[in-house]
TrEMBL record:
GO molecular function: serine-type carboxypeptidase activity
BP terms from Gene Ontology: peptidoglycan metabolic process; proteolysis
Domain of life: Bacteria
The family this protein is said to belong to: Belongs to the peptidase S13 family.
Keywords linked to the UniProt accession: Carboxypeptidase, Hydrolase, Protease
Pfam family, one: Peptidase_S13
Gene3D superfamilies: D-Ala-D-Ala carboxypeptidase C, peptidase S13, DD-peptidase/beta-lactamase superfamily
Record-annotated membrane-spanning stretches: none
Protein's name according to its UniProt entry: D-alanyl-D-alanine carboxypeptidase/D-alanyl-D-alanine-endopeptidase (Penicillin-binding protein 4)
Record-linked InterPro entries: Beta-lactam/transpept-like, Peptidase_S13
Biological source species: Desmospora activa DSM 45169
Amino acid sequence: MNGEKFRALLTEWERAYGEYGARIGCSVLEPSGRVIWEQDNHKWFVPASNQKLWTTGVALDRLGPTFQWETHFSWEEEACWIRGGGDPGFDLVQSAAVAEVMKRAGLKRIRRFYIDCSINPDPVWGPGWMWDDLDEGFTAPVSSLVMEGNRIRFFAEPGGDSPIWKWEPAQADVQVNADVTWDGDDPTDIVVRRKKHRNHFFLQGTLSPQEPEVEGAVASAPRFFVEMFSHSCREAGIQVDRFPLIDFAPYRSGEAVWIQPSQPLATLLTRVNGDSDNLTAEILLRTLGRDDTGTFSQERGLELLSRYWSEQGVKPPSRQVDGSGLSSHNAATPYALATWMNRMLARPHRQVWIDSLARYGISGTLKDRPLPQVPLTIAAKTGSLTGVRTLTGYLLQSGLPVLIFSLLINGLAEDEHGELLQDRFIDLLCRWR
């Protein structure tokens, strides 16, 4: 790779956008491991969601692509017990399927729910997460019970003087107060706030007709689960009290039992590496930390990651405090990330790993980026925090990796400038020969 062209690209970008204070680290490798270009590739950077690559890589190796979480249900007339198993993909489709099973088994009424979330005793947020982000959808509470990502999605149909809001799940008991205006020139910029113990949201800012959606985190994951599951039961023909009693108590088997498995890890991995779902990444980390009783632990998960890298002879991240990269306390070097990506190519499930990544101009968090005008594919993981934009992945030719790269940008004055540099870097990378 022509280093002079890369340096010229950086100089032009700095001058064009005034980003003289940004720190940029880069490492480009061949699959043989030979470094063909680097800049500050051994210095520490905040990796943002590129941190997920450490978590998901070890999870895929240790848990395997067929791994599934389980949600346990049992019931008898007028009572239902639910034990959360950490399924990050549980949704209204699965909820409806379980309700139909219960109806066919003869259940007619539910007056009380007994909820067991003891498998995940850790806090619902990760260490170092920003307190003023905790109502936003990307910081949905981490729980052993998940329903629709523990998020409410708000959206508005373009048109009219001010947005008219709807939300999904539409059945959710939600209140919205909004001070939002349309802005066709800039990206959506909305702050989401929520009352402490209620799904009463406050939206403030500007909404782009091209991005008419925002997300908020639910106030209580277990109570939201019961609310949505109650709706599914009513739809199936089971009578559920309007305000059923909810007790947090140990799970026990009633007269009938059903175990609902999650989708396999290979499928759910695209939620993390493709769509950058923080909740799934945090559940993966805690799942890796399970003890003999099956209880999750973030601390034990981090300890397992450290042992794994030591046993495998892998250079670990400089500092890891969570599974998703939401904390600015994480640190990694471009070289460590690039060599980790190269190491994953030698693991048994390499194709599952590659398939889990977003594709430039095609899918995931990269679907709206400019598609390279060459017969090459960019499979990569993005990372975004305020002032941080990161991109780590592969350049694929006929489905095979020909280059591995990690581009870490910290200290941006304007976040969108980082994405512009990523696009120009990818264009240069595609013409590296």
